[in-house]
Design a protein that fits this description.
39% of the residues lie in helices and 15% in strands. It is α/β, with parallel strands linked by helices. The chain has a seven-stranded mixed sheet with strand order 1-7-6-2-5-3-4, with helices on both faces. α1 packs antiparallel against α2, α6 packs across α7 and α7 packs across α8.
């Protein structure tokens, strides 16, 4: 309901507002709408959320925010904490009736074709925005993290911006790869985020990616999701890890 309501507003704004004003309105609108949703999740005790670490990035210079990606809800929760984030999204999401109009108003970046994605991401960073890019490219299916895609290093090098790592931990496989939307998870779900090291723009992308992947492995070893990542959906735990 929140997304559909925003679609009705975002569609005419995309046509009527100049790019700069429309982008700001789109990003604030998404942040506000998702905050309402996460507030409801907390109120009904579906989630125990701790996203306060991301608030420290407000007012910071342009950078790539690079989290691990255990669940489908990751981007939604991160976007509640910062008013000027461009999210790299799949084509099917940009064409989705619930999310497409709002994402286009916010000038989110389509991940296809790759060269255009890189150009648009670099351009947004050079305008001072923050880019939300999951280095795995998709949700995690192995512990502690999938192999990383080189796009984060390429964009950081071309835009000459740092890469801010972000570590997400959750004790539930809900909305992870293979989880059926019709399957009810044990509640409440613990979900927290913490900032990691900020890497300077790389000169050698291949060497940078190897260093970044090793860093994620070290930081996520023993994380909450290590109890279920890499398991088949049928063997996911039936109760939350405490």
């Amino acid at each position: 309901m929140i997304c559909l309501s925003w679609t009705v507003i975002a569609l005419p704004l995309f046509v009527l507002l100049p790019r700069r004003l429309g982008t700001a309105a789109g990003r604030y609108g998404i942040m506000g709408g998702f905050r309402i949703y996460t507030g409801w999740l907390t109120l009904v005790r579906a989630y125990r959320l701790d996203l306060r670490a991301i608030d420290a990035l407000r007012g910071e210079p342009a950078c790539i925010l690079a989290p691990n990606h255990p669940c489908m809800i990751d981007a939604l929760l991160i976007l509640t904490r910062h008013p000027n984030v461009a999210c790299v999204m799949k084509t099917e999401v940009l064409n989705n009736v619930f999310l497409g109009s709002g994402a286009r108003l916010a000038r989110y970046v389509c991940n296809e074709p790759p060269l255009q994605m890189i150009r648009e991401a670099v351009a947004d960073l050079q305008r001072g925005g923050m880019l939300l890019l999951f280095p795995e490219g998709t949700r995690s299916i192995q512990a502690p993290i999938n192999a990383l895609k080189a796009s984060v290093g390429v964009i950081a090098k071309r835009a000459a911006v740092p890469v801010q790592t972000l570590f997400i931990e959750t004790d539930s496989p809900y909305l992870g790869k293979g989880w059926s939307l019709l399957r009810r998870p044990p509640l409440p779900i613990t979900y927290r985020a913490r900032l990691g090291r900020r890497f300077e723009p790389p000169e050698d992308v291949r060497g940078f990616m190897a260093q970044l992947e090793a860093y994620y492995h070290d930081e996520l070893a023993g994380s909450l999701q290590s109890k279920w990542l890499g398991s088949t959906p049928s063997s996911y735990p039936s109760s939350n890890a405490q």
